[in-house]
């Protein structure tokens, strides 16, 4: 059966420092994004990156023991990438940085028209932390993802920051603040819209 041209797939790379089955605010926020994407008819799958041995480097496959190729297959098959990162010391988590470094390899992976394979795909970002800095982290991630070729939708991020110098966490909230829920819904809605537009009409050839 031919695939519905309107169907979309999303993969969420959850960059918590904690492997499964530990609770993760980054994973919970990614799931909240997924709930909104599913409402737009998008098939979603989460990958907890700390569960994999992702070797350092900027190649698609760093050799023996490297499990990034397993994740890469899911990323290449997806129309939408959800990158969910905690903030540590005012920066994206180290797992997030490693993911970005591995995505760098896709700049040299081009289609028949000379376009990097991520061109035509959409990325959105979710960030959690208990200090200020979400805008800075989102900006860093947007820049890297756009460099690789991803398109960023309007208002394509959602985030939550708890009070400074306190231990509150997103996963411990009794309810999601209305402003955060609204941002999550907008990011998902706009990402699905842009992904469908790009699926119908790709960017011009690079050659």
From TrEMBL:
Record's protein name: Flavodoxin-like protein [Amycolatopsis mediterranei S699]
NADPH-dependent FMN reductase-like domain ranges (all copies): 10-148
GO molecular function, one term: oxidoreductase activity
Pfam families: FMN_red
InterPro entries tied to this protein: Flavoprotein-like_sf, FMN_Rdtase-like_dom
The organism of origin for this protein: Mycolicibacterium parafortuitum (Mycobacterium parafortuitum)
